[in-house]
Amino acid sequence: MFKQIPLGPLQTNAYVLYNDQKEAVIFDPGGDGPALISWLKQQQLKPLAILLTHAHFDHIGAVDDVRDAFDCPVYIHQKEANWLENPTLNGSAFFPGENVTAKQANILLGNEKKLDIGPFTFTLRYTPGHSPGSTSYYYKPESVVFSGDALFQQGIGRTDLPGGNHTQLLESIHNQLLTCPEETVVASGHGALTTIGAEMANNPFLHGFPS
User: Fold this and answer.
1) Contacts of 113 by beta carbon, 8 Å cutoff, 6+ apart
2) Inside any domain, residue 210
3) Mean pLDDT throughout 21-40?
């Protein structure tokens, strides 16, 4: 089971994946830390980890709140190891309002193909282009991929931010995401849920790109 929870100034989708034993993994807690913590406690969930698809500011705003409240480690790709503490790299320096920072991640990901968090096993799909360390997490038992800002319903991530690369993003989507089963739910960083099949058929950004 998973819950989509829009958080923070850009209503970035956080996701909470959990099982019947109330164990949970949190993806991209983007803001509103006290509200997210309150919901997790109301549901009596036990977060085992925070998995970050990437380190842009709108995905990390509640990282420290949740990490401190539940004493759970934070994972991110090593290419964005220093982004959490750096408002210029995470983009908050260019957005109206306060700079957003978080303490360094506890665990850095490299090129692992698999990640075990308690009872949850994820296939890691490295999807750079929106940012250098963008990582999507495929969870086969729920047939869902947590794609961050790589792929959206009829859209793709922007590539005009530091480290962005449009061609690289399209390659990532075609080689790492569209190779998931077509019924796979795409849990994006913004907007509604979609499926791989729907995006293959209807996403205008993906048509005409060499497969």
Assistant:
1) 123, 124
2) no
3) 97
The token duo for 205 is 């950004």
Q: Is there a domain that residue 211 lies in? A: no
Residue 208 lies in a domain: no
What is the C-alpha to C-alpha distance for residues 31 and 13, in angstroms, rounded to an integer? 10
Structure tokens at 49: 């980890």
Count of the separate structural domains present in the chain = 1
Q: Please state whether beta strands 46-51 and 185-188 pair in parallel, antiparallel, or not at all (unpaired).
A: unpaired
Query: What is the amino acid identity at position 150?
Result: A
Query: Tokens standing for 61?
Result: 């705003």
Q: Is 167 helix (H, G, I), strand (E, B) or coil?
A: helix
Backbone angles phi, psi at 83, to 5 degrees: -80, -30
- Residue 194 DSSP SS3: strand
d(CA 89, CA 16): 26
pLDDT for 210 beyond 70:
no
Domain of 117, CATH number, reads 3.60.15.10
Question: Is 14 domain-assigned?
Answer: yes
- Residue 4 predicted with pLDDT over 70: yes
Domain of residue 63: give its range.
2-202
Predicted confidence (pLDDT) per residue in 102-154, tens digit: 999 999 999 899 999 999 999 999 999 999 999 999 999 999 999 999 999 99
